[in-house]
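Entry for magnesium ion complex. Fields follow.
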Amino acid sequence: MKQHKTNTELIAKSLKRRHRKQTRLKYYGLFSVLLGISFLLILLGSITLNGYTAFQQTVIKVNVKIDENHIFGDDGKVSQDVMYATNWDGLAKKAFRKVFPEVTDRFQQRKLSDLISANSGYEIQQMMIDDPSLVGKEIEIWVNASDDVDQFIKGRLNVEVPEDQRRINDMQLSWIQTLKEKNIIKKTFNTGFFTSADSREPESSGILGAILGSAMAMVVTMFLALPFAVMAAIYLEYFAKPGKLTDFIEVNINNLAAVPSIVFGLLGLAVFLNFFQLPRSAPLVGGMVLALMTLPTIIIASRAAIRAVPPSIRDAALGLGASKMQAAVDHVLPLASPGILTGTIIGMAQALGETAPLIMIGMVVFLVDIPTGFTDTATALPVQIYIWSDSAERAFYERSSLAIMFLVLFLIGMNLLAVLLRKKFEKKW
Amino acid sequence: MSDKIKIQVEDVNVFYGDIQALFDVTLDIKSKEITSLIGPSGCGKSTFLRCMNRMNDVIDGCRVEGKITIDGENIYDADKDPVLLRARVGMVFQKPNPFPKTIFENVAYGPKIHGLASNTSELREIVENSLEQAGLMDEVKDRLNDSATDLSGGQQQRICIARAIAVNPEIILMDEPCSALDPIATARVEELMGNLSNNYTIVIVTHSMQQAARVSTNTAFFHLGHLVEFNATKQIFTNPSDKRTEDYITGKVG
Ligand SMILES: Nc1ncnc2c1ncn2[C@@H]1O[C@H](COP(=O)(O)OP(=O)(O)O)[C@@H](O)[C@H]1O
Ligand SMILES: [Mg+2]
C-alpha cells in the first residue's frame, strides 16, 4: 500500500516535467512551421511586388501617315521587297518627333527618338500589313515607350541621382513631362507580354513563346512517361519474379529518382542529340529528357497505387479465370488510376520547373518567333526566367518576376489538381 | 446424388518457401455434394482449397507437389492452363470482394471475358439467371446498375456467389464464406449452398462445426497440415475415429 502511494507520487512529480517538455516541443514545432510559412510569404510577396507592374506597359501616341510607296510594289499589291527596303524605324521616329518640332539638333533628336521603343517601326509595319486600307491615311497609333521611360513612369527609375549616372537625362525628363501634359503617354494592360516571344527590347518581350515551348515539352513528357511508367509498374508488381534481377531493377529505379536533373540533360545531349541526331533546342527532345527524369517518380507512385488496391480484388478476378493482365487492366488499374494520376501530375510539376536539363539540350535560346511545332526551336518558361533575370535592363527584371508568378501559378494549379483528384476518387471498397 | 468422384487428390504436399504447409494429403471429393474442410486456424484448409483452382500459383514462393485430378485429368499437368481451370472451378472468398462496379458488371464480368454470351441480351439472361440461382434477384432486380459495394455484407457475398455461378463452373470452392456475415445472412447462404449442390460440386472451408454438420455430406478434418480424418459428416461428428478430431469437435482444442 505504501509502495503504491510512492509510485503515484513519483509519477505525479515526473508528470509536471513531462508536460513542460511536451509544451516546449509543441512551441518548437509551431515556431518551425511559422518560420517556413513566413519565408514562403516573403518570397511570394517580393516576387509579386517586383512583378506586378509588368502587367502594365507605357505607351505613347504617335500620328503617322504611311505612303503607298512604302507598301505596294509596281503592280499595286502589298510587296515584301518594298516593305523590307523601307526604313520603318525612321518613319516611326520621324512621326514621333513631330510632337516636338522645336528639337532640331541631331544629338537631341536621337535622344528624343530613344523615348519610344526601338521596335515601334515594326509595330507600324504590322498594322499596315494587317489593314492595307490604312495606307495613305493619317492614323494615330499607341506605340510602346522604351523600357527606360516605362520604368520611369512606373516609378522604378531613381532620378534623384546625378544626371550622368541615370539612363534618362534632364532633357528627356522634360519631354516626358510635355507628353504627360499633352495626355499622349499612358499605361495600358500589357497585352504584348502574353502574345509574343522574347525580344532584345524588354518592352516587346513576352512569355507566350516560352509557355508554348513548355506546354509542348509537357505533352511529350506526358505521352512518353505515363504509358511506360504504368507498364513498368504493372510488370514489376505482377509479373516480375522476385530475385536478384528484380531487386537490382527496383534499387536502380529508386536511385534514378534521386539523380540530379542535369545528368538527364547530359544523357539527352549525348543520346538524343549526338547519337540519334534529333533537332537541338526542340520541345520534342526537351520532353523526352524530362520524361526520363519523371519516369522513376511516376513508376514509384504507380507501384504504390497498384499495391494499395486490395489483393482481394485481384484474387476475385483471377478466381473467375481472368488472366493476370485482365485482372490488372480491368480491375486494378481503374482503382489505382487516381494514385497514378496524382503521381503523374506531381512528376510533371517537377518537370515543368526544371531548367538545367533543358539548358543542356539547347533550349536556352533567344527566340523572337513563337514555336509552332514539336521540332521547332523553342525555349521553356523556367529557362526564359533564367535568361531574363540574367539581363541588365531593369525592365527584364520586372518581367522575369511576372513570369515567375505565372510559373508558380501553374505549379500550384497542378498540385491543386492532384489534391482534388485524390479527394474525388478516394474510394471505399 | 451420385457416387461419382469429381476431384481426386493424391499425395499433395505444399510448401511456402522452405516451410511445408500440407503433408501427403489424399482424398476424393464426390460430384454434386458438399464437402467441408474443418480444423484449427493455420492447419492448411485454405492452402488445400487453393490447390484445387491453382490460386496458389499466384503466391510467390508457393510450391505444390502431388497430383490433383478433376474428371480424371491432372490439373497440374504442364499443358493445363490455370486460367481455363479457374473458369471450371469457381471460388468464393472469406471476405466478400465484389468489384467496385455495378451489380450487373460484377456478375457479367466472368461471362464477358470468357465470351460466354454472344450479345447483350444473352449476357443479361446469364446475369439474371445467376442472380436468380444465388437467390438475390428479388432483392436487386431494380438496381442492377447500383454499385455492388453499397449492398449489405450478406448480399455482397451472394453477389460473389452469383458472379462465380455466371461462368457456369463445375466446382465451387468456398473459403469460410460466412465468417464475415451475421447469422441471418449466414442462414441464407447456407440455404443457397443446399440448392446449389444439386448442380455443382461444392467444397467449403468453415470454422463453424455446426455449419459443417448442417450443410455437408462429407467432412475432412485437418491438423497441422495433415489430413487427420475424412469421412461422412455424420460419422465425424458422432463417432470420430481419431483422438484429435474428437478433441477439436468437442471444443478441447482450436
Ligand atoms: N502466402 C503465404 N505465405 C507463407 N505462408 C503461408 C501463406 N499462406 C499460408 N501460409 C502458412 O501456411 C499454413 C496454412 O495456412 P492456411 O492454409 O491459411 O490455414 P487455414 O486456412 O487453415 O487457417 C500456415 O502456417 C500459414 O502460416
Ligand atoms: Mg483460411
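NOTE: Chain A touches chain B through 21 residues (CB under 8 Å).
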